[in-house]
Specification:
This protein is mainly alpha-helical and 252 residues long. It has 2 domains: 72 residues, Orthogonal Bundle (Arc Repressor Mutant, subunit A); 136 residues, Arc Repressor Mutant, subunit A, CATH 1.10.10. It contains 10 helices and 5 strands; from the N terminus they run αααββααβααββααα. The strands form 2 sheets. It has a 3-stranded antiparallel beta sheet with strand order 3-5-4. A two-stranded antiparallel sheet has the order 1-2. Helix 1 crosses helix 3. The longest helix is centred in the N-terminal third of the chain and has 16 residues. The protein is elongated and about 70 Å long. The termini are far apart.
Length: 252
């Protein structure tokens, strides 16, 4: 950026957005690095202008100093109402590595049967398919017209909501999908930057098809970190659901 090329309102808006998206308190050094070309004094002036803006009672959130930086949080006078609201939300969806691998196969090969998923992954996936159905990330899509007429599975409307996709044509690469899943579904079991074992890296996104029309579930898509930063720094945590295995085969 050229020096002082940003308008005052634009600079303030950028500082506000940076603090909002950051998972940790934002320091003046971090702001200066992100807003290269702007003087530290001008950045500090805009930052304190934001602090004053959010101090007014019509705002339910504030920017407060935390560990040498600044972070958004709710105001103390609203904590009881917010705690009750957060406790009413369903816990974030968390998937095991086998479930995430099966979901990846369904997303990129749908509609697909359990035997086809088993062949790609090399293990029986009946148990994890049941978990994905319970989490409303996949739905049935009829039966395949072959011997035995196995059930077909496809991703659901909730799947699109969790990953922020307009439709299936926006599916990213498999590696990008797994990274999205770590953030959207709280799955932290996959090594950073490495594709899942047992998945074909040549999987290509399925062509766009009609979005499911079943009513959306009431699954909370707010992570524990969001609760912590937007309530009061003390996340309300729910017990994690039992982790499923690949051992329970499905009976079509």
């Amino acid at each position: 950026m050229a020096e002082s090329m940003l308008k005052d309102e634009t600079l303030k808006a950028l500082i506000e957005a940076i603090i909002y998206v950051s998972p940790e308190p934002v320091t003046l050094d971090m702001l200066a690095n992100a807003l290269e070309g702007e003087s530290r004094d001008r950045i500090k002036g805009s930052l304190y202008g934001l602090l004053n803006d959010y101090a007014w009672p019509q705002h339910g959130i504030q920017i407060r100093p935390v560990a040498g930086g600044w972070k958004f949080s709710s105001k103390a006078e609203h904590h009881e109402v917010l705690r009750g609201f957060v406790k009413s939300l369903k816990p974030p969806i968390r998937l095991s590595k086998p479930a995430l691998e099966a979901l990846s196969v369904i997303a990129y090969r749908q509609p697909v049967t359990v035997p086809e998923i088993n062949e790609i992954r090399g293990v029986d996936c009946g148990g994890v398919i049941h978990t994905l159905l319970e989490r409303k990330l996949v739905v049935t899509a009829g039966r395949k017209n072959v011997v035995g007429r196995p059930i077909l599975y496809r991703t659901s409307r909730d799947f699109l909501i969790h990953f922020g996709l307009r439709d299936l044509s926006e599916l990213p690469s498999l590696r990008e999908f797994e990274e999205m899943a770590r953030h959207a579904l709280g799955s932290d079991v996959l090594p950073q930057g490495e594709p899942s074992e047992g998945l074909d890296p040549s999987l290509e996104p399925a062509s766009a098809q009609a979005v499911a029309t079943e009513p959306a579930g009431t699954v909370a898509n707010t992570s524990d970190g969001d609760v912590a930063s937007k309530v009061d720094g003390s996340p309300v945590r729910e017990p994690e659901p039992a982790r499923e295995t690949d051992q329970a085969p499905e009976k079509p």
